Each structure stands twice: as C-alpha cells, then as structure tokens.
Automatic annotation (TrEMBL):
Catalytic activity reported: (R)-S-lactoylglutathione = methylglyoxal + glutathione
Region (Disordered): 27-72
Matching Pfam families: Glyoxalase (PF00903)
Organism for this UniProt entry: Stylosanthes scabra
Family, similarity comment: Belongs to the glyoxalase I family.
Name of protein: Lactoylglutathione lyase
Length: 426
C-alpha cells in the first residue's frame, strides 16, 4: 500500500521536525499515557485504522522494493542525506522510523483531534518576523458577538492573512521531472523527503524560498510510473523575460514537448508559448518583465464560472482580479488571487461554453493556502457551500493545524496554519 503524502502538504521540513520530536516531545511517554487512557471503542477503531483509511492509500506494484530517486546536484542530495540522518537517529533512540512516520501520515484520517474553543469572539493573530524567529501578535477582535454568524465569518475571511503556498501533483519519475524543471525551466530544488516506509517521496521546487514564494510539490509513489491527468486540469503559468530561449532549451530536451511556439496573443502584444513536461503537464510560458513570482498561475476548468467565483471569494477570501470573455473561442476566464499577479500567484478559472463537468484524473492533487485560523476557515467553507474533507485540527505527532475542502467542481484545497507552517520550515 502506498500512502499519498500529497494529502498532507503542511508536513514540511521533515528532518527538522524529526529532530525536534525525537529530542523534545517524549513520544514514548505520550504513547504510554494515550494507551492507558484510551477507551475500548477507541482501541477498536485504531485497530482497523489501516482498513478505514482507504482514501489516503493507493495500490502499488508489490514487486517494486526501491525508489529510482537519485537527487541531482542542485542541493537535493544534501537534503536527502539530512533526512536519512533523522531516520538513523530514530533507530538509536529506539523509536521505529515507520511508526514515527505513520503517526502523522495515516492517523489523521482515522483519529479525530480534540478541538479547542475557536468561536468568533476570540482574537485572531498576525505574524511578524524578527530575524530568524517568529512572533505571534494578538490583534483586535474580529467580532464582538459570541455566535459564529455568517456575516462575521465572511468578514473575518476578508481580513485573514492568506497566501498561496504550493501546488501538489503526482509524477511517474521524480529524478526525470527534477532534471527537466531545473535544466529547462530554471527552477531550484528546495528540498526532498524520501519516505521508504510509505513507499513514496516528495520534491519541492521553485524560484525562491517557500516562506516567500509559491512553489511546486511533486509526489512520487514507488512503482507508479504514470497518471491520468484528465481534461479538467489546464496548465501552470510561468513568466520569463525571454520565452524563446526557454522554448529552445525544451526543444533540445528529449523529455519535453513544445505545444505552441512563441507568438502574440490575439488582440494584444503579449507573447506566450505552451510546452509539456515529461508527465504531460502543460506549462504556459508568459513573456514579461522579471517579477517576484515567476511561478504565477494554476489554471483549472470549472462548470459554472459565477458559482466558482462566489466560492473562492467567500470561502477562500480571494479577490476577482480580472475576467475576460472570448466568444470566438467560446470560453470565459476569471483570474483570482490575493493580490496583483506581478507579486502573487493566482488561480485562473476557465469556463468553456456549455461544458459543466470534467474528468479530473488522478495526477493533479491540490493547492495549499496559508491561514491564521483553520477552524474559522472551515466554518467559512461550510457557509460558502464547500465540502470539508478533513475537519480542522492538528496533525497527530506534528501539531500542524490543517483543514481541507472541495470546491463545487471537486477541486481540492488544503489550508495550513501560518504559524505552524513557518515553524516547520525553520
């Protein structure tokens, strides 16, 4: 069985967390205390945990016993070496690495955390960086009432500190994809985590550190060499000051494919091109002046544009930045995000006239967004008509608070607590 770690994008910086938990959390004592206080019915549900977590596992080729992972020289090897050191330390401390990993990779689907009081009369928080540390500063009450009414929930969403953190999708050969992204698209490997006990690995790539930039999280499941991308996912957008040189580099790479050559967009002076990576994911190359966020777009197709706009405004707190209708090609797009596209990554929603449903396949996974409060976020999602797929709360063994939902078309979004996310990275 393969646990798909893309369901838990907040669990980052595994090596640092491993040292912290192994040395500071006294996991043995916690497990003993938990076992002593566990009710009979809880024990029964835990025994069948693996069977009940069917949503978080995938069948893999049982004959495949090792990964083809061989990080390039762009910094991935050092990260992987650090992670292996954590596993070795775990063995010395008599803590099985497999148990250490499973406590946060599998248990979230089976164990419901005990929720604290997160009603809307409590104070929100904001983050301030002070050198290498993080300060949590209490802010004014978002609501004077005690009830989580729709009005104050939606008002809080507008003031929440949100940012698109990363996009998650699955690939069939991690080494091949890393090589293509670094050599052809100029990305950097930010870190890699290899989880042999769960027969999977992740690589994070982008154009800058994760606490400041939108990045890509690649998921590789041992023994699975291809995925169905479907026709719902559209493409990723990346900006360059000279896309012709990028296209030429892709042309010389045996694993890439050029879909359209650089050319002006109809009715404008913008130059774009489309390429395809080794797994068939499309990238739109946009010729622009250098910006803070080169990885700038994720395009998804939706069946009702107005419905989707309303959901992402209310549930996700995004702004509608632009709409453009193209009757000749029979489609309309809406650009949504948390600020101007030259400074922030955005979501591009595309509606094709008369098409209400799409095949989402099993390749694309989700977008991760930061929030100051996952509990309030989940309440807003419910009020906006979204479906919660993971109730808000801390991930057992790690403490990172997350919640996950589906939009009206079934596209998944995971929200991560801002403070927890930054602490994990550091």
């Amino acid at each position: 069985m393969v646990a798909d770690v893309s369901d838990f994008p907040a669990l980052l910086k595994i090596s640092a967390i491993g040292y912290r938990d192994l040395m500071g959390m006294k996991m043995k004592e916690q497990r003993k205390k938990k076992k002593k206080n566990k009710a009979p019915e809880e024990e029964a549900s835990t025994d069948s945990c693996e069977n009940s977590c069917v949503d978080s596992v995938e069948e893999a080729d049982s004959s495949s016993s090792s990964s083809s992972l061989s990080p390039s020289t762009t910094g991935a090897a050092a990260v992987l070496k650090e992670w292996n050191g954590v596993r070795e330390l775990a063995g010395k401390k008599e803590l099985a690495a497999s148990g250490f990993l499973c406590c946060f990779m599998v248990a979230p689907r089976c164990i419901q955390p005990v929720h604290e009081d997160h009603s809307f009369h409590t104070k929100s928080s904001r983050l301030l960086r002070n050198g290498n540390s993080i300060e949590v500063i209490a802010s004014k009450n978002m609501s004077q009432g005690d009830d989580a009414t729709e009005e104050n929930v939606m008002d809080w969403v507008k003031h929440d500190n949100r940012r698109m953190l990363h996009v998650v999708y699955r690939v069939g050969d991690l080494e091949r994809t890393i090589k293509f992204y670094t050599e052809c698209l100029g990305m950097k490997v930010l870190r890699i985590r290899d989880l042999p006990e769960l027969r999977c690995a992740n690589a994070f790539l982008g154009y800058g550190p994760e606490d400041e930039h939108f990045v890509i999280e690649l998921t590789y499941n041992y023994g699975t060499d291809e995925y169905d991308i479907g026709n719902g996912f559209g493409h990723f957008g990346v900006s360059f000051d000279d896309i012709s040189s990028i296209v030429d580099t892709v042309r010389d790479n045996k694993d890439g494919k050029i879909i359209t050559e650089p050319s002006p967009v109809n009715g404008s002076c913008s130059i774009i091109a489309f390429i395809e990576d080794p797994d068939g994911y499309k990238f739109e190359l946009l010729e622009r002046v250098p910006s803070h966020e080169p990885l700038c777009r994720v395009m998804l197709r939706v069946g009702d544009l107005n419905r989707s706009i309303e959901f992402y405004e209310k549930a996700c707190g995004m702004q509608l930045l632009l709409t453009r209708d193209n009757p000749e090609s029979q489609y309309t797009i809406a650009i949504m995000g948390y600020g101007p596209e030259d400074e922030n990554a955005v979501l591009e929603l595309t509606y094709n006239y008369g098409v209400t449903e799409y095949d989402k396949g099993d390749g694309y996974a989700q977008i991760a967004i930061g929030t100051d409060d996952v509990y309030r976020t989940a309440e807003a999602i419910k009020l906006a008509g979204g479906k919660i797929t993971r109730e808000p709360g801390p991930v057992p063994g790690i403490g990172t608070k997350i919640t996950a939902c589906l939009d009206p078309d079934g596209w998944k979004t995971v929200f991560l607590d801002n403070v927890d996310f930054l602490r994990e990275l550091e």
